[in-house]
Amino acid sequence: MRIFNFSAGPAALPTAVLEQVRDELLDWHGTGMGIMEMSHRGKDFTGVINEAEADLRELMGIPSNYRVLFLQGGATQQFAQIPMNLLDGRSADYIVTGSWSKKAYKEAQHTGSVRLAGSTEGDGFTRLPGAAELKLDPTAAYLHICTNETIHGVEMFDLPEVPAGVPLVADMSSHILSRPMDVSRYGLIYAGAQKNIGPAGLVLVIVREDLLGKASASTPSVMNYATMADNGSMLNTPPTFGIYLAGLIFKNLKAQGGLAVVEQANIAKAKRVYDAIEGSGGFYRNPVAADCRSRMNVPFTLSNPALDAEFLAEAAERRLAGLKGHKSVGGMRASIYNAMSLDGVGALVDLMQDFAARKA
Question: Is the pLDDT confidence value at 1 over 90?
């Protein structure tokens, strides 16, 4: 019996997809071998990666002047790879709204000139900065944001006003494919796979073509977006199993009706958890401002931290896993990505209500 996995990542994957992987593991489509055993340059795998890209383009409405790259190194490698490719001898702006955008800003400082254009660290990353708090450079090479902060549970539903001509670069690792996004508003989108896309080890980069070819001379070929785009993400051996599984996820999302349908399910799941928090009479608390509460990652604390261990123990007894909050903030965190079912959310809410009734 599978558990309800609320882990922030690597995270739960759709059961139907895992069952298909299991069935195809030893023999993919009658080839007599598994997908991760075959040549990445053969026609079979070439078909897999091309189909995955086509399905992703359809799901997200990716315009034709954007390239899709299936890379390795995770989103954290992109913290360095982005300034290597886009700074072009200039400076870039960073808005810091949580742990991941803070790490991206810190890493970029090793590569070139970057500016802190705004931060909510003084408020514990519990809100987003207002327009008046941002100091944006109209000549910046790019403006970097993280549109969903996994640790602090802050999500951007409205983008900042970006100066004309400045590309917007977004880390979407923890909420990509959870709702429709207007890709044309971004110069570059990147996302680690281990939330809504597939297994850890794969990172997705969607980059506008006019931003290619700006990499510094010292950028290694395997980290140069233009080189990887010219080679169809296969300058070296790509993460074949991750790409295959991501392709299955894309088909699964299409079969559900696309991202607009997926978004409605995610709204319903998040509402149930936040309603349980707000309806607990203060027994549970979420510190994030209501207008930017993440639908994917819901951190919450108990009014008495001494009860944390007992709550987690009861969760384990009910086969609810991955609820312990990040070590930097403590408390609890329920990550309710696309693959988390409404039944799983219901099981969590039942525990929360039952536990509060007995311990308040």
Answer: no
195 is an active site residue: yes
Q: By the 8 A CB rule, do 126 and 109 touch?
A: no
Which is catalytic among the residues 93, 171, 269, 324?
Answer: 171
Query: 123 near 150, Cβ under 8 Å?
Result: no
In whole angstroms, give the CA distance from residue 333 to residue 286: 10
Q: Is 171 marked active-site?
A: yes
State the catalytic residue, choosing from 55, 93, 100, 324. Answer: 100
**Whether this model's pTM surpasses 0.85:** yes
Q: Measuring CA to CA, which residue among 263, 275, 272, 271 is closest to residue 338? A: 263
**Separation CA 331–CA 299 (nearest Å):** 7
Alpha carbon distance 201, 121 (integer Å): 29
Could you give the CA distance from residue 360 to residue 281 in angstroms, rounded to a whole number? 9
**Residue 236 binned pLDDT confidence (cut-offs 50, 70, 90):** very high
Tokens for 88, please give them. 């072009």
Q: How confident is the model at residue 56 (pLDDT cuts 50, 70, 90)?
A: very high
In the residue annotation, 343 being an active-site residue is answered as no
Supply 76's token pair.
């954290």
How far is CA 108 from each of CA 12, 82, 92, 103, 249, rounded to the nearest angstrom?
A: 31, 8, 9, 9, 31
CA distance readout (Å), 309 to 304, 323, 332, 351: 11, 11, 10, 14
Give the model confidence (pLDDT) of 70-84 as tens digits: 999 999 999 999 999
Residue 272: which residues within 8 A CB-CB, separation 6 or more? 342, 345, 346, 349
pLDDT digits (tens, 9 = 90+) for 191-216: 999 999 999 999 999 999 999 999 99
Residue in 55, 93, 102, 195 annotated catalytic: 195
